[in-house]
Amino acid sequence: MNLKLYIIIVTLLLALSSFGQSTNKWNAHAGLNYSSVSSKNSINPDGILGLNAGIGYKLYLDELGWALMPEVNYSQEGYYSQRLHYLHVPLSVGFDFTDNFNLSVGFQYSQLVGASNEATAVFASNNLAFLLSFEFFPTQRFVTGLRFSNGIKNIIEQPDLVVVQSASTYAIQFYVGVTLFKKKQINDAFGHITN
User: Which of 71, 113, 151, 177 has the CB geometry, 3.0–4.6 Å to 168, for a possible disulfide?
Assistant: First the structure.
């Protein structure tokens, strides 16, 4: 899936946000992540710390707590001395087990927007990863989250330039976020949805 198609899908989901019947939310978040790569044909290198930041939307699908969560994020990832700068477009499906806890799974398309050293000549310009996220809401306005992403695509584009022939990314992200605003919709006495 290319970036343009993925952005179109996320945009359509955001356009459908007016059809939800719960409190849909825009949020912004930032935090730290630990990332590296795993490889089958070499010693796995040490990981590095980086920053992450982004904005997302939580579109409730029903009153039971199911939601679609498209986002746009920036993340500093890589390994050892290689710093990779990614623009991520994650799309997850989540469930609110309680008012304070959410679990979600999904996929993430990533576009490499910058890199250190010779990394731009070696690494693929895009990536695809599986996501698993846990979110805790200490209040209605704030959220803390822990996300694990595991790449499902080989990011080594020029294997003849490096010892590692095949590698996939992984990252553990911790973030703190705030709800920017909510869009609440309720049913009137006749069953019509009103804002």
Answer: 151
pLDDT number for residue 99:
83
The string of DSSP letters for 52-81 reads EEEEEEEEE-STTSEEEEEEEEEEEEEETT
Residue showing tokens 């990314």: 169
DSSP secondary structure letter of residue 161: G
What pTM, to 2 d.p., does this model score? 0.78
Token code pair at residue 152: 């499902």
Backbone angles phi, psi at 71, to 5 degrees: -145, 165
Distances (CA, A) of 172 to 2, 8, 146, 155, 183: 24, 27, 7, 18, 30
Rounded average pLDDT over 186-192: 43
Instruction: Give me 159's structure tokens.
Output: 């294997």
